[in-house]
Amino acid sequence: MPSRDTVEIGLNRFARRGYDLDEVSIVPSRRTRDVDDVSTAWQIDAFRFEIPLVTSPSDAVVSPATAIAVGQAGGLGVLNAEGLWTRYDDPLPVYRQLRDAAAEAPPPIALLQQVYAEPVKPDLISARIKEMRDAGVTTAVRVSPQHTELLAPSVLAAGVDLLVIQGTIVSAEHVTTQGSALNLKSFIADLDVPVIVGGAANYQTALHLMRTGAAGVIVGVGADSFSTGDAVMGVRVPLASAIADAAAARRDYLDETGGRYVHVIANGRIETSGAIARALACGADAVQVGEPLRAAKEAPAGGVWWDSVAAHPRLPRGGTSAPVPAAGSLEQVLLGPAETSDGRTNLFGALRRTMAKTGYRDLKEFQRVDLVIGGRPD
Amino acid sequence: MPSRDTVEIGLNRFARRGYDLDEVSIVPSRRTRDVDDVSTAWQIDAFRFEIPLVTSPSDAVVSPATAIAVGQAGGLGVLNAEGLWTRYDDPLPVYRQLRDAAAEAPPPIALLQQVYAEPVKPDLISARIKEMRDAGVTTAVRVSPQHTELLAPSVLAAGVDLLVIQGTIVSAEHVTTQGSALNLKSFIADLDVPVIVGGAANYQTALHLMRTGAAGVIVGVGADSFSTGDAVMGVRVPLASAIADAAAARRDYLDETGGRYVHVIANGRIETSGAIARALACGADAVQVGEPLRAAKEAPAGGVWWDSVAAHPRLPRGGTSAPVPAAGSLEQVLLGPAETSDGRTNLFGALRRTMAKTGYRDLKEFQRVDLVIGGRPD
Amino acid sequence: MPSRDTVEIGLNRFARRGYDLDEVSIVPSRRTRDVDDVSTAWQIDAFRFEIPLVTSPSDAVVSPATAIAVGQAGGLGVLNAEGLWTRYDDPLPVYRQLRDAAAEAPPPIALLQQVYAEPVKPDLISARIKEMRDAGVTTAVRVSPQHTELLAPSVLAAGVDLLVIQGTIVSAEHVTTQGSALNLKSFIADLDVPVIVGGAANYQTALHLMRTGAAGVIVGVGADSFSTGDAVMGVRVPLASAIADAAAARRDYLDETGGRYVHVIANGRIETSGAIARALACGADAVQVGEPLRAAKEAPAGGVWWDSVAAHPRLPRGGTSAPVPAAGSLEQVLLGPAETSDGRTNLFGALRRTMAKTGYRDLKEFQRVDLVIGGRPD
Amino acid sequence: MPSRDTVEIGLNRFARRGYDLDEVSIVPSRRTRDVDDVSTAWQIDAFRFEIPLVTSPSDAVVSPATAIAVGQAGGLGVLNAEGLWTRYDDPLPVYRQLRDAAAEAPPPIALLQQVYAEPVKPDLISARIKEMRDAGVTTAVRVSPQHTELLAPSVLAAGVDLLVIQGTIVSAEHVTTQGSALNLKSFIADLDVPVIVGGAANYQTALHLMRTGAAGVIVGVGADSFSTGDAVMGVRVPLASAIADAAAARRDYLDETGGRYVHVIANGRIETSGAIARALACGADAVQVGEPLRAAKEAPAGGVWWDSVAAHPRLPRGGTSAPVPAAGSLEQVLLGPAETSDGRTNLFGALRRTMAKTGYRDLKEFQRVDLVIGGRPD
């Protein structure tokens, strides 16, 4: 395996030096282009998207209706097959309960744990997928690695287009002494739909996940800036470095297979248009975005945010938040125009402009843009 | 091209290490001088200035009247040919509206977008230039690269002394599929007045802009500490490094042409006298200053601040601010005496003292002063 | 002695570069495991513990009753033989006084100095040890190096299982011109019970303490995030580096003795489950934890925190705090389940999950987990 | 000249890497000592002090009475010969005016400028020195380099023991086109009293000042954490590096002269006992301390703080502060006991303990203590 800079933290104990997205920035090079000459299109397997967006599978921002709206805006909405929409026939009262609790302060973790204690109903999975399919958009749902074998039949029977197998930390080699673990490689080989799998944190895990036959690998372990995986588990993945490492795995796997290109999808505190541009500049093919979508007026939780890991029954990580006011429609959040300058609306219009101002025509070229470390973030 | 320190952020993905102005400081060397023996004079083309000041073309601080006052104090005021003074016959009610909105909080971006939606009138450009010329100061106006060909005739016909072609990110090679782009080189070759052009962010862009025949190149992409170019576009230019790189381009271009010296004008969060000294110490010939001038009692927006990019119709960047109280006359802000110790008045008197305390007689020598990285900023 | 990275701070004056625990994080590697297949067991001398926990000997969290509860939860409680329980026949009124003083603000240092001015009574030491022994848990008390010779007889006569000789900074070679100093080596050689000694700050001190015959060495000089040893004494021990250095001393001593394994116990701002995981990942065998235990409803000071060094009569260091509300039982704080996501409950359940998600079965293996420097802490 | 680490900030433009005192810390080594076996004594020329303290010449903390108290506590008090006590026959009303202005907020700079506009009276200098001499302590006054030739006769005639020639930035080679500048070398050669001179910022200036015949050189340009020299002048001197560089100059000058030892006195944000220990550990022989003394109940400004440079008529730097409550007598601030743990009382008792805990008997040995870079400051 190739090696990155290492630091000797103490005698003979080494650590690799990693960089977060907000430590890295883009430097304009000598050419500029018209914004209208730039394409942000992205294609994975047979599915083409106008913007390189895969939503986080968070109930706070993705309902069947918002997944449809994301698809119509050019991205890929991912519904959580283990979320509120598949636990409750009518989740609206649950949303209301969470929003009421959040009116003045972030809702308590214990309340999240309670509403997610309700069992998942496989027939609701089918119904939700049907609703999205009927709208004509590309459909995707997320299952956890632990429940993949149990829930995948319902998901596939309902005709999903893409399956997302996602946990905080996923490996291609899960070891268990209790029965047999999910064998991702044989599971994926038997499927007719492409699979996106992750999160992975480094070159090796990314490469191993690529070898399972996945179409895309999610890189990063934390979904948002409310995550507490570092405080709770001591785990931290500086994302700029992880993306670059996964892009190296992509190149090596492309060579190893003589041409199979596995997409790298970055996930972790990608909450501004600037962060989107950085993630792609570091080598990602697409970005997984969640938290900023809560500012869309269509967001099902009315501006409140939580990630599903915050509802873990024994070891919740990540946080919940008080609501933010709506900043515009989902389309405006994604495509503009912006009426604020905080990088949280017109997320992909801004990307297009960054590409134009640095002279790149498409995303693949843009992965080679000049980067700088240092300087003060806004 | 010569190379600076690089960091491997991930496998085979490299970034250059950059330093911001506030990371760099000046170290007194063994000699000191009398303040009165020091000159801060600067000359570009046929124009000589007592202080190396080019104002930002921000409507918040530059009206025809303040441009004149800056000229009388020894610097160069730059009026925005695409700002309020050329959109409105009488911009005072617009200023009033913005100031009223700002009384308690920064005025909303949407209001800026609205007042800048009014079209530019070429005949107002002529009238404003005439007003400044009549006062006997060196005149300069700024046009954007996109509107240069449209507006330059009016600007030149009015007899401007210096033309500033400035956008956030400007290149010598703009590529378009829609008609033809501005060819800076042939455009400048045809002009009788010297041109200052920018912003550029690195050695290459600076060198290419020097080769267009410009008299000066602006280095830096952000005009003030309210900028959000990093959050919105993922673009960041650590200015100390960018200035030093552009100074290297200046040396190389001087050698390449056998003697053409193109001035480097630093732009970006130069908001204290300390930052002015640092920028010049890193290799700049002059500094573009905007935000601190709003504390002058002549400032047309009464202490409110915004940069023109904050008014962008689809992707505003940068911010607006509530007003600051006046700290004195424009002359006092520029030349002292200071009655506060925050580095925001007596901007160029402080520069003179720094030069004296480090033993330098003029700005060209001062570019060689000893620098240190590290230590705690005030 | 092996050498770590050094920095030349000035001409010919060098400093070693050290890393704090919160600068280092764990990176998941390619394998994952079931949580139930993981063991957090730790054994020192003849004593086995289900969790690698040694409590700080702080009166704020350790009474005889809580030491028993810690033992029942699988860890080692350490009572301070020079604390309130051995100075007062009934310390409850003293606790009440401190808690009353802390209701609105941290209690004043002067009050701590006053309550700790009461002399230690050897017979109370015996009584407290007896109470803990009677509950059937492994017993341990802490004495200071200065009072070891005076108090050890009472401690040993009472049948303690483990003796902890702990001061902020302890060396194997104390030099005095006033009588004779404690000779740790001969003192320990004469004992029948195993000794844990510290704190040590670097490779050399750790190695020398290992050579005294101690079973365990405490690494680190500060007990909590309220410490002020850096402001008061200019002393700082970046803990990740100190742990790794002490682990190197452990390896070298193991080789030197042909097999004596001395345990490294990390001490210093280990206040979240994430910090526990990091400390063990850097090479510690166990962690000394204090401050987080004050959130247990059994904590004797009702949520107030202080470390004994804060009561020093002439040079107090460290702070006191206003009380925190109870977060659950001591067992819940240590073993979960958690109802918050701040890393301060389910301290060792989280460790187990980190080990599972990085694929390690036991603590000794986990000391080899991949580390990363950089990235943003939560 | 020997060279330290350099950084290439941009192409061919280099800066040295400097470290501030709070980035450096002391690491206990393997030996410890009794506190009572440690000496903090310092001797310069014929004058011996029990603690290595030279006060800042700030009127906020040094009156003739407090200079006497400092001397009685074992240090050296320095009265400003160009301060309030030599401008006003009775400065008490001026102190009152400043304290009244400071009751709720820091007093305005303009008020300082006004009270310092009063001329210095040479006969008051004589009277103040006489008052201190009569108390039997070692006397020292500070003059600025600009006024040294004018004021020195009065100072010397009054029988001062040590003369301190101090400005923010002082060089051995002041260049002027207006008349002749002070020639420090010939001036000092003609004197009977030893001279302390500074501040110097690097190896070269320190070495040149040593060659003037001074007994001590002050290293550092900023007197306190309220300084704004960085914002105003762009000048910053990371003190740990500057001290180490000056200590190297001291060694080289010692060799060059075959035995003349010039003392290095550190000056700049030395405001806690920890900072005192760090400064000495980096190589200083003594420390110049000002701001913490305002917490002594004898402080003439009643807890308000300002440095004389804050009163500069055209370019004030540095700040003023609201008063702090008294923390005890001057003796308690210097020698303890402390009743708080913030490092701001028992300043030199803490030093003694740090020396004991790291095993050093005297200050000269302590300059070799192990240092570490990194870790979190308190």
Care to give the gist of this entry?
The structure is a homotetramer of 378-residue chains. Chain A has 378 residues and is of the alpha/beta class.
Please supply descriptive tags for the structure shown above:
homotetramer, 378 residues, alpha/beta, TIM Barrel, eight-stranded parallel β-sheet, 14 helices, 16% strand, globular
SSE string of chain A, helices as H and strands as E: EEEEEEEHEHHHHEHEEHEHEHHEHEHHHE
Shape of chain A: globular
CATH architecture of chain A: Alpha-Beta Barrel
Distance between the termini of chain A: 36 Å
CATH class of chain A: Alpha Beta
Radius of gyration of chain A: 20 Å
The CATH superfamily of chain A appears as Aldolase class I
Order of neighbouring strands in the sheet with most strands of chain A? 7-15-14-13-12-10-9-8
Task: Bin the strand percentage of chain A.
Answer: 15-25%
Helix content of chain A: 25-40%
CATH topology of chain A: TIM Barrel
Q: Major β-sheet of chain A, in short?
A: 8 strands, parallel
Keywords (chains A, B, C, D): NAD, Oxidoreductase
InterPro entries (chains A, B, C, D): Aldolase_TIM, IMP_DH, IMP_DH-rel2, IMP_DH_GMPRt
Domain IMP dehydrogenase/GMP reductase (chains A, B, C, D): 19-305
GO molecular function, one term (chains A, B, C, D): IMP dehydrogenase activity
